[in-house]
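pasting input
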Amino acid sequence: MKKSDIQELRRLIGEENVHDDRPHQLAYSYDATRDHYEPEAVLFPRNEEDVSKVLRYCNERRIPVVPRGAGSGFTGGALPIRGGVVLALERHMNRIKEIDLKNMVAVVEPGVINKELQREVERHGLFYPPDPASQEYSTIGGNVAENAGGMRAAKYGITKDYVMALRAVLPNGEIIRAGKRTIKDVAGYNLAGILVGSEGTLAVITEITLRLLSKPRLTKTVMGVFPTVGEAMNAVYKSLAGGANPVAMEFLDNLTIRAVEEKFHKGLPVDAGAILISDIDGNVEEEIDYQIALLERFFKENGATQFHIARNSREAADIWFARRNASQSITIYGSKKINEDVTVPRSELPRYLEEVERIAQKYRVTIPCFGHTGDGNVHTNVMVDGENREEVERGYKAIEEIFRVTIDLGGTLSGEHGIGLSKAPFMKMAFTEGELELFRRIKAAFDPNNILNPGKMGL
Amino acid sequence: MKKSDIQELRRLIGEENVHDDRPHQLAYSYDATRDHYEPEAVLFPRNEEDVSKVLRYCNERRIPVVPRGAGSGFTGGALPIRGGVVLALERHMNRIKEIDLKNMVAVVEPGVINKELQREVERHGLFYPPDPASQEYSTIGGNVAENAGGMRAAKYGITKDYVMALRAVLPNGEIIRAGKRTIKDVAGYNLAGILVGSEGTLAVITEITLRLLSKPRLTKTVMGVFPTVGEAMNAVYKSLAGGANPVAMEFLDNLTIRAVEEKFHKGLPVDAGAILISDIDGNVEEEIDYQIALLERFFKENGATQFHIARNSREAADIWFARRNASQSITIYGSKKINEDVTVPRSELPRYLEEVERIAQKYRVTIPCFGHTGDGNVHTNVMVDGENREEVERGYKAIEEIFRVTIDLGGTLSGEHGIGLSKAPFMKMAFTEGELELFRRIKAAFDPNNILNPGKMGL
């Protein structure tokens, strides 16, 4: 970028919204991967028109543009690896524009924080289910760009299941609308369908219309303790196949249980092979009881030695404590965490965890696992000593083998975090050359000059 | 096509699977629109490999290929308007390949009949919700190509909400896979998302993996009678916004009620402005009662003069009789039906139906309406005397104005039937030139030679 580009961008969207000073370049050079790439300028568009102006300008001059929400992504999706500008949408474009109670939709700008939206709609008795672990700080725009999941996916699905309509700006500055405020809309190609999860590589999303549900009136929490992780994984898929419909079906393996216990001394069953934690929701007690009875039956039939039902919200919080603190606790196993979010068909969970154990032994690394087993999504954490280069290398080899096992079991490289930069090298493992070529052609259909988040997704 | 093309296609997929005789050309020249375009040849591929061979061959020679399921579409999507070959998938590629009880998915070939799949999964206690009115004969492949809806959409969504993974063949013969047997999969672009509803213009779908649910154990049917259609439409959106979650929320207007009564003498309330019919499902009686109490409250608060709860399945069938026979009964108003499936945000239903009444008067045509109001989808039927050219013309003018009103109210040209041929002229009303240009570029990314279902969707 030239100095004149900065000047022109300032003219286009206002002096105070274009920054090329060192502090801004540094502040917008990171995301949750801790990788580091500096943008040449950081832009704070005020509205869709600003986004359009910036894109048209940058497209003509082939300046890379990287849209960014909270920068909380785990795969480098928001990193400006080829310089250019970061389009920071969280500063000004962060309004909940409308909560339409009549049609049960919310219309938001991309910079709205997920949890803020959840809280706001719940005040009206409504419910926005997608709840990524980053919900307190990640933005809806980022959630849409990465097609974020969360704990409630087993029952309620993921971000794509709630996106009814989008407004977005193409690299040429053209504003497009996709979808309607209706469940049914089959006119034209499903642009919203392909923009969700496109990691900022196709268009800059400027407005999102989300489907809302009625908030269920009741929730209960249960926990099962299992001697082995295999039995717990059997209980997961057999419960769901047997008619249970829990909101969440979370799991901690023995390594994770022990880590949380070591850190917090909560009296957890440190000899257990695994714990399953599940939330059930509904509108009437009898429905909750019906669901709990199903879980109790399938848990016990599959080896559960204990089954607890939280009697109140304090007990529920106690049960959830271990899961909520899993991620930070496992740092006892190593200063560096290589955290993957692979997902396999639920029935393959027992096989998958056996393989992870084998791989841990083979590469002499510790791999605590926990996560959203209700949808087959296991957070697989290879813990290594960050100072020990040889161990870190073994860790990455373990990850590669984990990816291979995942693909062989019919699973995916990423259930939640996207591909971005960090999983890009593995795209060839998961996709054929023909599929990758199609991705490139789709990319070019939206972004012929490859200015939008270039170099991501292995394209 | 030359004679040598037929010979080569015969060599590729077998003598008995390639037909260029008159009976075949005629048999595959129609769909539910009753428009008529003859293909040069009709092909019955036996498997994905056959599809790949045919596409590669036709792509090299620029021969149009039109994939076809049951030919039950309402917009001409399966009509070979530029000749070439019809790829008839219902003959050989009609197997349910797998019902995976562990992961609750079904894997099917495109030619499987929707209802056949529903019946088969229900035998295992599972449930495939999308239920287009054509369910007894339309194919899953066609349902995916058109993103079919149905009555259960208000609670359970539409076809796209059940497609977890696809296999498809690109025009160059390349086989692509999209999605996984997992709820979460965010690796690469969401190809399944854009293939759903693409009306056979991007790729030929050869295998579909569908998400299944547990079959709810109980269902009840209720009916409300309203003095005016406006009150009924208020009851629809207020019930849903108020926490009711009915499977279906169907409506009949006064013209439709009278038509059914005239034909079948069932004792329907012929003076009513509208009837609402709703199914409630769940696993426990108390949940059903809770939902029915909500509906009763919102129906009565919005003017319902009667509220019936079916006491058994015979009474439920009686209530549903009027709705099920609506489509055939309204033919009393005219020999030709111009049937549109416009959809508006639910809160706009009262306004929409007022406008339809105004348009009916303006163009001196009869427009009975019924349909899936739970998701804002109103089947709007302009009935005219097919022999009276001037009246038919007025009918089409009315339709055009109905489309304009729909778009103005934030609705869509098509909630269920797609664009195909018959709605293609209205694409410019619904989309900007920039959006249409993007559609064309996406089409070219998949199908650079424009051989797949060319000339459809107004592209």
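fyi The longest strand of chain A covers residues 218-226.
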